[in-house]
Amino acid sequence: MHTYLFVDGLDVVARSDSRMAGLDPRRLLRSGGPLFPTDMPCKVDVAAQERPEPGPDRLTIRVRLRGETVIWSDLMYPGLDGKVIEEAHFRLEQYLGEIERAYAALKDQLVSRSGTAEVKPAQT
Length: 124
What we know:
Blueprint: E1 3-7, E2 10-11, H1 12-16, E3 20-22, H2 25-28, E4 42-49, E5 58-66, E6 69-78, E7 84-91, H3 92-112, E8 117-119
Parallel strand pairs: 1-8
Antiparallel strand pairs: 1-2, 3-4, 4-5, 5-6, 6-7
């Protein structure tokens, strides 16, 4: 089971490194988990090398809270215009709502079957 992280419709993991797959959503999306922002910035592993075979490489982002804005930094993926995206900003309320929605959907899936979860916060 993998977490898919989308910003403005773009899959951050796949665009950053196609060998990677998002880590287990039960780890990333749980309440108080690593994607929940705090005033103290933290580095979060969000994906691991899956191809050509599982490996030690990790995709890491920096998550921090500044006022009512969540900031993901240390990103390096091409945007729709081809320019490199290095940072994404999210409104705190919307960001937390998306994580909670995705985690609730995950819990529903786990009751019925295994699957995937997506986090799609819209960039501000």
